[in-house]
């Protein structure tokens, strides 16, 4: 039986969406217990029916979206996110889930849960869909945990992503690529050039070289690595483009002539399939990977569906024992990456 510590107060739609997603997950996965950290008076109205595997730890504080991350973690000792992270640190829970302040969750992961020995910079890693094959996906790291990186950090991201793709996604020999502004080894800034040189030397990686942003979603690689500043900008561009595309299609059909509207009805199911592929909520959250336990962040505007799929993702991570594998690997690898 797994136990997940849930920050019930984090996110734009908390606690309602968080609790509804947890209830849906509890009805699907019978091997998980959930501990909801938050204001009991706000949580209880949404807990309906039989909730034997859902419990509440009442908290008097929460971390707001505009709080300064490190300061909030250190000053708000009774915040739902802080107490949930403490439970994971004390091994009272197996994983931490939140839709709250991203920076604060990163700080809680680093300062409370703690890094795996040998990993300098845990990275934020989402799983993204492949547009050309809806049955496949890839991992992208880092998307915001580390704005400034050294080449050795990108190598560690590659090794971490490689383990995740093998263990959690079940890919035998993941194709690892470096995000760059050209495919040639000589392309890019100094960070990209140095990272490419180091990645080529990692014999345990199936490193395929550079990949351009326009190729990111076409399935060319199973693991794509970059620094957190670039990764965050690219991820937001992808999300924004996907949402704009869906809105454009809807607006075109709605404002079109009769023939356009009839055509819209005929392709309605196909458009729904496209929306499902582009919907980030169906692919789980972003894992703060490189910590001693799974810490997973879903979008601040997450609804119950996004919460459900993120919990499904956490369950898969726990089933895979990927954290144990990474911990063992980096104990021996630490001195080799410089």
SS strand fraction: 15-25%
How many strands appear in the DSSP assignment? 12
The main pleated sheet reads as: 7 strands, mixed
Q: Strand order of the main beta sheet, please?
A: 3-2-1-4-12-11-5
Helix content: 40-55%
SS-derived structural category: alpha/beta
Mean pLDDT, nearest integer?
A: 89
- Per DSSP, the total helix count is 12
SSE sequence, one letter per element: EHEHEHHEHEEEHEHEEHHHEEHH
Your description of this structure?
The chain has 338 residues and is of the alpha/beta class. The protein has twelve helices and twelve strands. It has helices spanning 16-28, 40-43, 69-75, 80-89, 102-113, 151-167, 190-200, 228-255, 258-266, 268-278, 304-320, 322-333; strands at 2-7, 32-38, 54-58, 95-98, 123-125, 127-129, 137-141, 175-179, 206-211, 223-225, 286-289, 295-297. The strands form two sheets. Strands 3-2-1-4-12-11-5 form a seven-stranded mixed β-sheet, sandwiched between helices. A five-stranded mixed β-sheet has the order 6-7-10-8-9, with helices on one face. Helix 6 (151-167) crosses helix 7 (190-200). The model has no long low-confidence stretch (mean pLDDT 89).
